[in-house]
Amino acid sequence: MVDPRFLSPGGRRIFDLSGELLGWDRAVTIIGQSSGLEAVLERATMVAGFDEPVLLTGESGVGKDSLAQAIHLLGPRRDGPFVAVNCPQFQDGNLTVSELFGHKRGSFTGAVADRKGCFEEADGGVIFLDEIGDLHMGAQLMLLRALSSGEFTPLGSNTPRRVNVRVIAATNRTLSASGLGEHFRGDLFFRLRYFHLNLPPLRDREDDWMLLVEFLLDQLRQRHGISKSFSERSLQLLSGYSWPGNIRELFSVVTSGYAFSSGEIIEPEAFISLIETEGHQRARRVEDSAIRQMALNQGDFWSTIHGRFMNRDLNRDQVRSAVAWGLTRVDGSYRRLLKLFGLPEEDYQRFMDFLRHHKLKPPRRPR
Description:
Blueprint: H1 9-22, H2 35-47, E1 54-57, H3 64-74, E2 82-86, H4 93-101, H5 118-121, E3 126-130, H6 137-149, E4 151-152, E5 161-162, E6 166-171, H7 186-192, E7 195-198, H8 208-224, E8 229-230, H9 232-239, H10 246-260, E9 265-266, H11 272-275, H12 278-295, H13 301-310, H14 316-329, H15 334-340, H16 348-357
Parallel strand pairs: 1-6, 1-7, 2-3, 3-6, 8-9
Antiparallel strand pairs: 4-5
């Protein structure tokens, strides 16, 4: 079972229902309690009872596949099959059509026997078309017909077949009415977008990264029998990271840190090579320069941090990291932080309002 503190109310409902249906070792686990994630889970609950298609968007690694399973399990088709298809897997038009709609023997080179497609296998349930933005153009027209009428014709056959399938599609591409072109049909886009749910990136999910770290460390402890935790220095580094690879990247970093740490405390050296990309190092240099100026009394927060943030020389993650750096030196007191940042006491309310308005307060430390 998963500790309830890792889950929002929507996440708990999905976990409980999927555990009862699939077994607790296969339950759909969507970790996080941020307002952005919970809003998406609430909307997923609302659309789950419908039969119309759902389009899931979001960066790679945000958990679109888990959300698709959740929509399936929350809906009336939960007892039917859930068939997932990776659309970019087949770049040949015939192979793509065959994967989705099946084929008759001899319909193309290599078709040595009749084959059912994924739409037939998903009859009565849900088909999940992952990375739909990369679907071969040759299959898009057949998919449009299947969505419109519920009918399709296997490759090499003259007899149409009818299925009762709900389609959930996902993409990390920007598909919009104004951005459609020669690689994706506009009519198919509108047919897929009855319901649109966008999963926020991890960097915009408040403290969820910390819950994910704790969750994965707990899973690793159960699997390997050794309890480990990240040092304050490591947490400071991770709190300022933007997680371009989202949850998938975080799991890689945490697992690597757990594996390569020699003791029970995970120091940055165990995982730093995975996150210190050239771009991240450049961003760090700007942030470090601002911190160094304040430490040497060469400027206050307004001139070194605020100004650069408003000019977009520093991003939200970097400002959070700078504030977190200061808080570790004043035992977490924002009032004492004013002095460290070269600000007078009367600037306290303005400082706190600025942090709240721009969501710049660093996440709480895990206990």
